[in-house]
Amino acid sequence: MTDNTPRGDHTFREGDTALLIDRRGRQYLIHLEEGNRFESHIGNLDVGALIGQPEGTWLVTASGHRYIAFKPTLADLTLRMPRIATVMYPKDLGTLLVYADVFPGARVLEAGSGSGATTMTLLRAVGESGQVFSYDLRQDMLDQARENVEMMSPEHSNLCLKQGDVYEGFPEDNLDRIVLDLPEPWHVVPHAAEKLVPGGIFFSFLPTVPQVQELTYALRAQGSFHLIETMEVIMRPWNVSGRSVRPSHRMVGHTGFINTARKCSPRPEVDGEAEAGSNRER
Predict the structure, then answer these.
(1) Which residues, other chains included, contact 158 with Cβ-Cβ below 8 Å and sequence gap of 6+?
(2) Does residue 253 share a domain with residue 167?
(3) Measured between alpha carbons, how far is 93 from 266 in angstroms, rounded to an integer?
């Protein structure tokens, strides 16, 4: 599915990305062009035959195996798109949108573009009136992110991909949100305090407890952040088959810690306030 396809259009068009699902639930992303073929061990398909057909169309191979085709969701794209680096899982991206409160029209700085999963999520949330500035140290990461974003939305004039080290700072200001997928986000805290709007949200995704501790210390010590919180999201699917209802044998457990903080003015000193109590309230 591409964002130049009209909203509410549930018909496959040439140039769309489609999701094929076989009888065992295995899923494949394919690009729709006339003459394109999908080859697998259970048979080949003329995927160009999907063009002009509605979502939910079935295709049958010469050997009698069925595939069903849908336009991929953002979660489908995130998990199955080509990637160089590990991406944030859909469960964490959904939490990002809600807890970082990414809204239409927001100015968002992202660092750690990786393969573009977070970039795509942010672009959809900020809409055409918003702006996403996405940084990465490596040009190959930026190239991969651009390719994957174009799979979702060929037109993305509100995205600026930049090669650079945000630990050293960045020129963008009046930022509503800063979203980091970096190993040492505490280096960004002083810059975030300067560039976020009042009430702006700082978001960081980290895999380990020591990193969380270091970031939390930096946010508290900086003095311009409040509501500093850390959480993780565990997702457990369930199998429902007749009278048998049980948790799936596989679950998406710990993928990382979500850390958020709000930009505020420096906390005023209170006469007689003990230093220990002051530190606890930060």
Answers:
(1) 123, 126, 128, 129, 130, 131, 132
(2) yes
(3) 30
- The residue among 156, 221, 217, 224 whose CA lies nearest residue 195 is 224
Q: Does an H or E element contain 202, and which?
A: strand 196-206
Instruction: Classify residue 174 by its DSSP letter.
Output: S
274 residue type, one letter: A
d(CA 20, CA 38): 10
CATH code (residue 48): 3.10.330.20
Secondary structure (3-state) at 117: helix
d(CA 278, CA 7): 52
Q: What is the pLDDT of residues 6-38, one digit of tens each?
A: 456 789 998 888 999 998 889 999 888 888 888
**What CATH number has the domain bearing residue 240?**
3.40.50.150
Which pair of structure tokens corresponds to residue 271?
Answer: 């006469």
Task: Look up residue 140 and give its two tokens.
Answer: 């190959």
Same domain, 177 and 200: yes
The number of distinct structural domains making up the chain is 2
Residues in CB range of 281: below 8 A, 6 or more apart: 267
- SS3 for 203? strand
N residues, the chain? 282
Q: What is the pLDDT of residues 132-168, one digit of tens each?
A: 999 999 999 999 999 999 887 777 889 999 999 999 9
Quote the DSSP letter at residue 137: S
Residue 61 φ/ψ region, left for φ over 0, alpha for ψ in the -120 to 50 degree band, beta for the rest: beta
Q: Cα–Cα distance between 91 and 182 in angstroms, integer?
A: 19
If 0-12 CB within 10 Å is exposed, 13-18 middle and 19+ buried, where does residue 23 land?
exposed
